[in-house]
């Protein structure tokens, strides 16, 4: 049996939506589907403003500019993340300051964040790892206390909630990624979501060369870039978004099966919500493998045809950050947990037979080890 790490769920209407734009022979760049998708995302996540981009990274870059962060500013980020989160402050000359994670959600540890705050701190960028909401309410309190901005990186957690409030709506502004393995995808793509009109307006200018239309008169009022999403992808997004609640439901069912069948194993920690108010969406299904057995299990599963991957190696251990002088920093939980994590296959259409194969193969590894 061969089981991939992820498979995108698509149907005929995705093809029809894109086909319609192509066949129209016009507005492949600035079609009405773009604003329509933004409106639908606002409705879905219950937020005021949305701007779609050509990637999550472009959205992060734009937010750094829109917040006016600059040289001399410090921004607290996790090291247990995809590298884009930690690169973001660098885009505007600000300094990423790494904080550790906690074990319940694998998100930023609010206590360590508090310790990292200085007079130069301007913001915290929190991620919700693999679709699991982090302790965002605690981070929000800290941000308020120190009068700094809370930004959410929701790349991995579209549709996750705490008590019916979607992640991405706790901070001042957030980014989404629609890259291929995400809950909601357009292949590549991303967005900024916010309730702040000011951030929305600034970000909109940056996204499209600083262009502003006043009545029929176009003016360029500030230097900007082209970070726009093309119309075909917005059309694909509109048809994918209709399936997103179903996709989330399926992912949660699959994760439940894996949790129930793996959690008896004392050498594994499964990925479960810390309490009933948490509603994870399982963009990743990550287990923690104890007693230094992670790498051996990874090789064993790969040999048995089960794709699995390590999300994440600590960002501060990569060459790019070592070269910037982050060689000697120490984040005990991040370093320990990144040696334990293993992400297993999860996608809406993974069959019971495949799930059973994954759990029995893992059981056989521990039996024979
Ligand atoms: C936490 C996190 N932030 C940012 C990004 C960047 O998004 P994109 O790949 O769309 O640029 C990703 C994408 O994988 C991510 O996982």
Strand content: 15-25%
Quickly count the helices.
13
Instruction: List each distinct ligand once.
Output: pyridoxal-5'-phosphate
Quantity of strands, as a count: 15
Distance between the termini: 22 Å
Question: What top-tier CATH class of the largest domain fits best?
Answer: Alpha Beta
How would you briefly describe this protein structure?
It is built from 13 helices and 15 strands. It has helices spanning 12-24, 32-45, 56-66, 83-87, 110-116, 136-145, 197-207, 231-241, 244-262, 294-303, 319-326, 332-338, 352-368, and strands at residues 49-53, 74-78, 95-99, 121-127, 149-153, 161-162, 165-166, 173-177, 190-194, 211-214, 217-220, 268-269, 278-279, 285-289, 341-344.
């Amino acid at each position: 049996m061969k089981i991939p790490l992820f498979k995108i769920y698509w149907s005929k209407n995705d093809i029809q939506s894109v086909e319609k734009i192509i066949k129209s022979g016009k507005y492949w760049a600035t079609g009405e589907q773009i604003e329509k998708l933004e409106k639908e995302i606002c409705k879905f996540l219950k937020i005021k403003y949305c701007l779609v981009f050509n990637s999550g990274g472009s959205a992060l870059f734009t937010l750094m500019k829109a917040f006016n962060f600059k040289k001399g500013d410090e921004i607290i980020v996790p090291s247990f993340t995809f590298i884009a989160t930690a690169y973001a402050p660098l885009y505007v000359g600000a300094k990423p300051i790494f904080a550790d994670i906690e074990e319940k959600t694998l998100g930023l540890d609010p206590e360590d964040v508090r310790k990292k705050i200085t007079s130069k701190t301007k913001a915290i960028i929190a991620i919700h790892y693999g679709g699991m909401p982090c302790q965002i309410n605690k981070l929000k309190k800290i941000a308020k206390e120190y009068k700094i901005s809370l930004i959410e990186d929701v790349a991995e957690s579209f549709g996750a909630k705490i008590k019916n409030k979607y992640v991405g709506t706790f901070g001042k502004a957030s980014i989404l990624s629609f890259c291929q393995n995400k809950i909601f995808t357009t292949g590549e793509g991303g967005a900024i979501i916010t309730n702040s009109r000011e951030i929305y307006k600034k970000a909109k200018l940056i996204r499209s060369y600083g262009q502003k239309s006043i009545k029929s008169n176009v003016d360029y009022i500030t230097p900007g870039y082209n970070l726009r999403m093309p119309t075909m992808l917005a059309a694909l997004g509109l048809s994918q978004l209709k399936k997103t609640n179903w996709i989330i439901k399926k992912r949660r069912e699959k994760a439940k099966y894996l949790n129930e069948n793996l959690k008896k194993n004392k050498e594994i920690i499964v990925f479960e919500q810390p309490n009933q108010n948490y509603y994870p969406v399982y963009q990743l299904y990550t287990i923690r493998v104890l007693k230094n057995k992670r790498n051996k299990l990874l090789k064993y599963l790969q040999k048995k045809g089960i794709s699995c991957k390590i999300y994440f190696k600590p960002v501060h251990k990569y060459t790019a950050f070592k070269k910037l002088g982050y060689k000697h920093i120490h984040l005990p939980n991040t370093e320990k947990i990144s040696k334990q994590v293993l992400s297993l296959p999860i996608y809406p259409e993974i069959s019971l037979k495949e799930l059973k194969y994954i759990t029995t193969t893992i059981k056989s590894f521990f039996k024979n080890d």
